[in-house]
Design brief:
mainly alpha, 6 helices, elongated
Length: about 130
């Protein structure tokens, strides 16, 4: 396959995966991140932004370190599952995540975002 087509395939797939992750993540949370962010809620922006960055780090690593497109897709699916599980476990352990985000507790949102980025980095390293 010509390099430009390979680039476009991986780029389009990665963007589609990030969009899919965004949709899944925002549907699994008990609050509406988009509405909260539109209202100026920093905590929701920090938590969602961290989750997107954490997932994207693993997607990047999978593109760099896998041999073929299907292997990339498999690692991407695994990365998505890990990020979703991390959110689920973290919010269960920290309790009151929904209330903290809705109350615009930026410290809590920053913590959720930092956890998501940290796990994304570790996940990306594991892929490589």
């Amino acid at each position: 396959m010509p390099a430009i087509l390979n680039y476009l395939l991986y780029l389009a797939t990665a963007v589609a995966l990030v969009i899919a992750f965004f949709v899944i993540y925002t549907r699994m949370t008990p609050y509406d991140e988009v509405a909260l962010i539109r209202g100026g809620n920093h905590a929701a922006a920090l938590a969602l932004g961290g989750a997107l960055i954490g997932f994207s780090l693993t997607i990047c690593s999978a593109m760099l370190h896998t041999r073929d497109y299907y292997q990339f897709l498999a690692w991407a699916a695994g990365a998505m599952l890990v990020q979703v599980l991390v959110y689920y476990v973290t919010t269960r352990l920290l309790k009151m995540a929904s209330e903290q985000i809705e109350a615009d507790n930026s410290a809590f949102g920053g913590l959720l975002g930092a956890i998501a980025i940290s796990v994304g980095l570790v996940n990306a390293g594991a892929v490589s």
